[in-house]
């Protein structure tokens, strides 16, 4: 029962991380650029210019015209969400609180481990690419004109949190899947031994 609870905690942590990663991917505040009378936000899919009177947003027309950091970050974030989606589907089959694969305890444990590994991969991809993006913004800010001030926005922090929660939940799922699988194997072995003694 306790192991099942820990598995649920891991799954919920990963689910929270995935939701944060989705939110960060579509947020516009990946980069903030301050100029004399306007504030520019740049996201992975659009940019917005805010003045004292109006705010206008524009969706990127061409991927090839985008800066390298936006192209790379967008690609890796989408890949991260793909692995996270696979992890969500597979881990549901491997969790002890579900009825799937009850007749195959070994396979159920393997499914939990596989789902956890996919979550870990997703979280690491998110965390690494976000850190790289933040580092690029810092470098560009140092080289920018003194009238422009660049810094990374709220989406970077949301993405960091999403990657951390996703990976941490994946670790709990993987470890619990290994322990659960080992316990099931030992239990089956014990039952066979008792049957022979009788």
UniProtKB/TrEMBL annotation:
InterPro entries linked to this entry: Claudin (IPR006187), Claudin_CS (IPR017974), PMP22/EMP/MP20/Claudin (IPR004031)
Keyword Transferase: no
Keywords: Cell junction, Cell membrane, Membrane, Tight junction, Transmembrane, Transmembrane helix
Source species, domain of life: Eukaryota
Protein family (similarity comment): Belongs to the claudin family.
Summary of the function given for this chain in its UniProt record: Claudins function as major constituents of the tight junction complexes that regulate the permeability of epithelia.
Protein name, entry field: Claudin
